UniProtKB/TrEMBL annotation:
EC class (word): transferase
Keyword Transmembrane attached: yes
Signal sequence annotation: 1-21
Pfam families per record: Glyco_hydro_72, X8
MF GO annotations: 1,3-beta-glucanosyltransferase activity
GO cellular component: plasma membrane; side of membrane
Keyword Transmembrane: yes
Name by which UniProt lists this protein: 1,3-beta-glucanosyltransferase
UniProt topology in membrane: Lipid-anchor; GPI-anchor
Segments of this protein annotated with the region Disordered: 343-363
Localization in the cell: Cell membrane
EC number: 2.4.1.-
Organism: Bimuria novae-zelandiae CBS 107.79
One GO term (biological process): fungal-type cell wall organization
Length: 552
C-alpha cells in the first residue's frame, strides 16, 4: 500500500506540467455508494487523507462584518509551493472553507488533479453563511452557494461541498439545522438541474456537540417530502476528542464507530488533530489516532482531514510559510503525521463485493434538546420566484435602505394576528413557512406591504409607508405564471398564518387561466383570480378589512 500512497510518479508529472504522464483530466470521479466512497475507474474504496487548506480564515464561524478570506485555490504560486509537501503527507483531499467564485482556479485545480488530489469545498464564506443564531436560507445565500458550485463543478477532482460547517454549535442553535438541510436539498437539486457531474455530493460538517446524535439523524433522514432528496450525501465530523496519547475508548472513537455503523452515507473526520495546551505553548501532536482511524475503523469511517495546513493564531498549522510566503517550513507535527500515515496500510472494500444495507434513520422528534420539526422543511429558495412575485404586485418597495424596513415589518406583522406576514414566515421550530420566506428583505417587505394594500381598499395612501413603497402596474414575464401558480392553492405550500402547509384564505397567489380580457374565476384552492391584461394579479377574498390606514 505504501508504494501507491507516495505517488512519486504523480508528483513528478504534476511538476512537469501538462506534458507529464498524468493528465489532470485522467483523475477518476469519486462516487458515494452506501456508506463508502469509491473510485469510479476501478471500484476501489476511497479513504480521505485530507488537509484543511485555507489561509487567513477562522473556520469556526463569525458574524463579524469585517471578516475576510484568501481563496487558496486562486493562488497558483502557493499551490505549486505546497504540493510537494502535501504529497509528503500522502494528501489526496484538500478541504477549502471559502473560495471566491469570481477568481480563476484552473492552475491549482489542474495541478492538484494531476497529483491525484481532490477537493471538498465549503459553500459559505465568513460574511455569507447560515448563521447559527439567526439562521436563514435565502436568495443571497442561494446565489453565493450556487456560484461556488458553478465555478468548481467543471473540475473532475471535486468530490463535493459542505452546505454548512458547525452551524449548530450550541444546544439552543438546533433550529439552524432546518435551514442547512433545506440548503442541502436545494444545492443537490441545483447540481442535478444543471446536469453537473452527478458524483458531486453535498454534506454537512458538524462540531462535536452534545446534540451530535440528533444532528446526524436529522441530516440523514428523509422526512417524506416529495421532490428533491433532503438527505446529505456524506457526513463530516469535526472531532478533537483524541488528544495526545489517547486511545480508542477514552477518545470515544469506539463509541462513535458503533454509532455510525448503521449510517446510510459515508462519514469522515472533516477536521481532526487535537492540541493539548501545556505550559510554554501547545504540545507537539503525536497523531497516534491515525493508526486507529486508518486501522480497524475503515469499515465505518472513510478517513479524515487534518486541521490544518497553514499556521495561524490558533496554532494548528502543520507548516510555517517563510521568505515572504515563498517557501514552506514543516513543524514537528508535520513530521509525526507523515510517519504515522506512512506506517498504516488500511484494509479496504471493493465496490463489487459491497452491498449497501443501511437505510435512512428516523428523523429525531422535536423536544427539549431538539427544536426543528423535520417536516415541513423551509421551502425551496428560488430567486426567480421572488422576482416574479415582486413584479406582479400592485404595491412594491422602492427604497433599498434596509435599515428602514424593520419598523414597517414590525407594524404590519402585528396586524390581524400576523396575516399579512404569513407568506414570509420562516420558523423552523413550529414548521411555519411561507413560500416567500427565502426572498430578500426588500421583496418580502413588498409582499407584506402589498397584502396590506390589497386589504385596505387599494388606495395609494395604503401603499406609502413613509415613502418606502409605491404603487406599480403589475407585470409578469414568461415562466412567472407557472412559478406563481405553484405556490398558490392546491400544493399545500401556500403562505399561511396557521402554517403546516395549509392554504390560507385571502393570501393566495393565483393566476387566471384566461389569456384575454378581464376574467374572474375561483381556482381549486379557493382563490379568486382576476385575470388582468398581464394575466397575474393578487386576489383578496371577501373578508377585506377596512382597518385604518397605516401612518408611520
Ligand atoms: C484504483 O484507482 C485509483 C486511482 O487511479 C488508484 O489510486 C488505486 O490504486 C486503484 N486501485 C487498485 C486496486 O489498483
Ligand atoms: C472549533 O470549534 C469546536 C467546537 O466549538 C472546537 O472543538 C474546535 O476545537 C474548534 N476548532 C478550532 C481549530 O479552534
Ligand atoms: C456556517 O457554515 C459555513 C460553511 O458553509 C461557514 O462558512 C460559516 O462560518 C458557518 N457559520 C457559523 C456561524 O457557524
Ligand atoms: C470593522 O472595521 C471598521 C473599520 O475598520 C471598524 O470601525 C469596526 O469596529 C470593525 N468591526 C468589528 C466588529 O471589528
Ligand atoms: C443561544 O444562547 C446564546 C447565549 O445565551 C445567545 O447569545 C444566542 O443568541 C442564543 N441563540 C439562539 C438561536 O437562541
Ligand atoms: C429540485 O431542485 C431544482 C433546483 O432547485 C428545482 O429546479 C426542481 O424543481 C426541484 N425538483 C423538485 C421535484 O422539487
Ligand atoms: C480497534 O482497535 C482498537 C485498538 O487499536 C481496539 O481497542 C478496538 O477494540 C478495535 N475495535 C474493533 C471494532 O475491532
Ligand atoms: C417560532 O415560533 C415560536 C412559537 O411561536 C416562537 O417562540 C419563536 O420565537 C419563533 N422563532 C422565531 C425565530 O421567530
Amino acid at each position: 500500500m505504501r508504494g501507491t500512497w507516495t505517488g512519486i510518479a504523480a508528483v513528478a508529472a504534476a511538476l512537469m506540467g501538462r506534458a507529464g504522464a498524468a493528465s489532470y483530466d485522467d483523475i477518476p470521479d469519486i462516487e458515494v455508494y452506501g456508506q463508502h466512497f469509491f473510485y469510479t475507474n476501478n471500484g476501489s474504496q476511497f479513504l480521505l487523507r485530507g488537509v484543511a487548506y485555507q489561509q487567513n480564515y477562522e473556520p469556526n464561524g463569525t458574524a463579524d462584518s469585517n471578516a475576510s478570506y484568501t481563496d487558496p485555490l486562486a493562488d497558483s504560486a502557493g499551490c505549486k509551493r505546497d504540493l510537494p509537501y502535501l504529497q509528503q503527507i500522502f494528501t489526496n483531499v484538500l478541504r477549502v472553507y471559502a473560495i471566491d467564485p469570481s477568481q480563476n482556479h484552473d492552475e491549482c485545480m489542474e495541478l492538484f488533479a494531476s497529483a491525484g488530489i481532490y477537493v471538498v469545498a465549503d459553500l459559505g464564506e465568513p460574511k455569507t453563511s447560515i448563521e447559527a443564531d439567526a439562521p436563514e436560507w435565502n436568495v443571497e445565500l442561494y446565489r453565493r452557494y450556487t456560484s461556488v458550485v458553478d465555478s468548481l463543478s467543471k473540475y473532475k477532482n471535486v468530490i463535493g461541498f459542505f452546505a454548512g460547517n458547525e452551524n449548530v454549535s450550541a444546544g439552543n442553535q438546533t433550529a439552524a439545522a432546518a435551514f442547512v438541510k433545506a440548503a442541502v436539498r436545494d444545492i443537490k437539486g441545483y447540481i442535478s438541474s444543471q446536469n453537473y457531474r452527478s458524483t458531486m455530493g453535498v454534506g454537512y460538517a458538524t462540531a462535536d456537540v452534545p446534540v451530535r446524535d440528533e444532528l446526524a439523524a436529522y441530516f440523514a433522514c428523509e422526512p417524506g417530502n416529495s421532490g428533491n432528496s433532503t438527505q446529505i450525501d456524506f457526513w463530516g465530523y469535526n472531532v478533537y476528542s483524541w488528544c495526545g496519547e489517547s486511545n480508542y475508548a477514552s477518545s470515544q472513537y469506539g463509541e462513535r464507530y458503533d454509532f455510525f455503523s448503521d449510517y446510510p452515507v459515508p462519514v469522515f473526520f472533516a477536521e481532526y488533530g487535537c492540541i493539548v495546551g501545556v505550559e510554554g505553548g501547545p504540545e507537539h501532536r503525536p497523531f497516534t489516532e491515525v493508526e486507529v482511524l486508518y486501522g480497524n475503523m475503515t469499515n465505518v469511517f472513510s478517513g479524515g482531514i487534518v486541521y490544518q495546513w497553514f499556521q495561524s493564531e490558533n496554532d494548528y498549522g502543520l507548516v510555517q510559510l517563510e521568505d515572504n510566503d515563498a517557501s514552506v517550513s514543516p513543524y514537528p507535527d508535520f513530521t509525526s503525521l507523515r510517519s504515522q500515515l506512512a506506517s498504516v496500510s488500511p484494509t479496504t472494500t471493493q465496490r463489487s463485493r459491497y452491498t449497501p444495507s443501511n437505510s435512512a434513520p428516523a428523523c429525531p422528534t422535536t423536544g427539549s434538546s431538539w427544536l426543528p420539526v423535520a417536516s415541513p422543511l423551509p421551502p425551496a429558495v428560488n430567486p426567480q420566484l421572488c422576482a416574479c412575485m415582486a413584479a406582479s404586485l400592485q404595491c412594491n418597495i422602492k427604497s433599498t435602505d434596509e435599515t428602514k424596513y424593520e419598523d414597517v415589518f414590525n407594524y404590519l406583522c402585528e396586524q390581524h394576528d400576523g396575516k399579512y406576514c404569513a407568506g414570509i414566515q420562516h420558523n423552523a421550530t413550529t414548521g411555519d413557512f411561507g413560500a416567500l420566506g427565502g426572498c430578500s428583505p426588500k421583496d418580502k417587505l413588498a409582499w407584506v406591504a402589498n397584502e396590506y394594500f390589497m386589504d385596505n381598499g387599494r388606495s395609494a395612501s395604503a401603499c406609502d409607508f413613509s415613502g418606502l413603497a409605491t404603487t406599480q402596474a403589475p407585470a409578469t414575464s414568461s415562466g412567472c405564471g407557472t412559478l406563481l401558480n405553484a405556490v398558490s392553492g392546491g400544493t399545500g405550500d401556500v403562505p399561511s398564518p396557521t402554517g403546516k402547509g395549509t392554504a390560507a384564505v385571502g393570501t393566495g397567489v393565483a393566476q387566471s387561466s384566461s389569456k384575454t380580457g378581464v376574467a374572474a374565476s375561483v381556482n381549486p384552492g379557493g382563490f379568486v383570480s382576476y385575470g388582468g391584461v398581464l394575466g397575474v394579479v393578487y386576489a383578496v377574498l371577501a373578508a377585506v378589512s377596512m382597518a385604518g390606514m397605516l401612518v408611520l
